[in-house]
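User: Structure with NAP, tokens only please.
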Amino acid sequence: MTKIFMTRPLPDSVQAAAADLFDLTVRPQTSPLTVEEMRTALSDYDGVVPTLGDMFSSEIFVAEPAWRCQILANFGVGYNHIDVDAATASGLTVTNTPGAVTDATADTAMTLMLMSARRAGEGERLLRAGHWEGWHPTQLLGMHLGGKTVGIVGMGRIGQAIARRCHFGFGMHVAYHSRSAKTLDFPATQMDSLLHLAAAVDVLVVAVPGGDATHHLINAQVLSVMQSHAHLINIARGNVVEESALIAALSAGDIGGAGLDVYEFEPVVPEALKAMENVVLLPHIGTAALEVREDMGMMTVTNLKAFFTGEIPPNKV
Ligand code: NAP
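Assistant:
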């Protein structure tokens, strides 16, 4: 029977679906695989279900001329932790879970936008600390999102879902910068450069994939052209934003605030960010809803099933 290794526990329904089809081993730990564990997974199993943090770099694949493992069915749409070229050169197929994550991640972006613009984290900390002395007209005044302009960096599935929420739900103007032309069913202004977009908007939202091409895409220069009241939201990958430059921009008052779901050196979050009132910090919960994690898991099972019955998996990357 085909042997499959899940690198983390997934929802019960997903494990049951996989166990119906395969000889399934579930690693009980919730931490990323070590180098040794990655090599063992590739040599002892026919398929592996890795996820964020399992750093399948080229050094892992080149350690052996041929592996037993034929497929990495990644749990998640983002697969920048897998060197796909090296995996392919070693004869492995890589799949991911696009679509299943889109709405939940867009919702998390809206959560961060609202919390950052309306100072919700700061207000909750004030209340929990026992410092709230009651309502008054000039307390905790934030920025109203209605009528403001959101700038989307990476107008893909999640970027468009965020833009739709901003336009239809909040009456915001939408602007974006994109490598390829987009056909959209809502009004949105395409800007000719990332710098022009950053300078023009009240909220800049990052929704590009991680990886070498987007490493530090949001750097000191981009932050320096943003308006001093503007907020930066990152639900993409931590190293798309140069964290030290973000801390400097926030400290200097060059931007108004930030809402982050992901971090450059995750799970390490700089003390400087934790100390700032105008920063909202979420622990990478973009897709953290049971139904969503079930959908993602079922997509990995579908990809594995297709692959091992000789078909091209629907979500081959
Ligand atoms: P997607 O549909 O592929 O969209 C990505 C967009 O980024 C595309 O519009 C693409 O532009 C653009 N892009 C790619 N490389 C770029 C570059 N070098 N410069 C500028 N733009 C670039 O992906 P998605 O499903 O929306 O997911 C986006 C990312 O969100 C994932 O890769 C993942 O890392 C992250 N994510 C995070 C969470 C979380 O828990 N926080 C959850 C889900 C996903 P083109 O259209 O021109 O190619």
